[in-house]
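[Meeting: bench + compute handoff]

Bench side (C.D.) handed over the final construct sequence. Compute side (W.E.) agreed to return the predicted structure before the next meeting so the bench team could plan truncations. Sequence as handed over:
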Amino acid sequence: MVFEEMKITNKKRIVFVDHSFHKRTASSNFFKDLLRDKFQIIELWNKSWLGKYNLKPEQINKLNPSIVLFWQSIPEPEFIRKLKGNIVFVPMYDQSAGKDKSYWNSYDSFSPKVICFSRKLYYVVKLTFLLKPNCYFLSEFFEFRNL
């Protein structure tokens, strides 16, 4: 588990669970930079794409997050169920495009907030959470204040 040293701060804490390949590509850094002004970011690296899910809910909960944000890789509902804090998904089209309404419905009881970069993915997720305004297209993110 890799994360920045926890500092004493008045900022809310986000545990940012990122795809470990992004350590090399730094492709999620722009988003983390947007959040850093208002939040303390603790990075955890998901290695499930290598065939091993290295994170446990208990590890995340020990960090006492206000928000747990999953970038690209979304764990199974059983994993999410054990977490404390608000849940935010930032799915990527290439990994989530084939997921249908039943997949997204399996997360409905957690009331996750979802931020989509793909308009097509946004509409699939938005239809699933129709009664809950928890899905945002990227342009709406900048109006999105209460993660």
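W.E. noted at the follow-up: The first strand starts at residue 12 and ends at 19. C.D. will use this when planning the next construct.
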